[in-house]
DNA sequence: AAATATTATAGCACATGTGCTATAATTTGT
DNA sequence: ACAAATTATAGCACATGTGCTATAATATTT
């Protein structure tokens, strides 16, 4: 009989890296002294999405990051100013 | 009668920014002299996805960018070493 | 020019990002 | 301790990212 080969596609959620991004975002936001709500407003996105990013519940898209960076009025390389860990997909 | 209010959620595809990212990726990949296929292999992702990013057909996630950056053995801030245009959602 | 390598497209399926809305939990200020 | 502000969670719906596979288009080499 034919095998039921379930081929599991591996998508990735890079928790380690996303944690560093979240940390950096919180830092910058704190420096600027603006709330998640205010940032969401300025970036024209939802508070829930900002919160999801900061609590590492989601794997944001590059466009989303671009919006945030613009709203924070900070260079892109500033938000990404951290060292990526070697990678483990746990 | 009740109105058929279609409320159009606005998602964003930041073509301008993504074009710059694509350009930077191509540049780095060229410098390193590796093909899309080789990069895909090293990053453990598909050739099609690399191509989609370089031709601005997709809005990649941060985790995807992390994989690419690791495979290119280049700092994160290097891939993002460009100036974001002010933003237009055409 | 033919062969080979590289890049671009395409379509399907599944997983997930995000908007939207509401509520809960936590922190801050009085 | 209370009130107010801020942050975190949650669930639904829809759009889309990505793997997978195949093929087409283009560029490179011989």
UniProtKB/TrEMBL annotation, chains A, B:
Keyword DNA-binding: yes
GO molecular function terms noted in the UniProt entry: DNA binding; DNA-binding transcription factor activity
UniProt cross-references to SUPFAM superfamilies, sorted A to Z: lambda repressor-like DNA-binding domains (SSF47413)
UniProt entry tagged with the keyword DNA-binding: yes
Record's GO cellular component terms: cytosol
SMART domains hit by this protein: HTH_XRE
UniProt keywords, alphabetically: DNA-binding
Pfam family, one: HTH_3
Stretches assigned to the HTH cro/C1-type domain: 25-79
PANTHER family named among the record's database cross-references: HTH-TYPE TRANSCRIPTIONAL REGULATOR, METHYLPHOSPHONATE SYNTHASE
Stated name of the protein: HTH cro/C1-type domain-containing protein
Organism: Flavobacterium panici
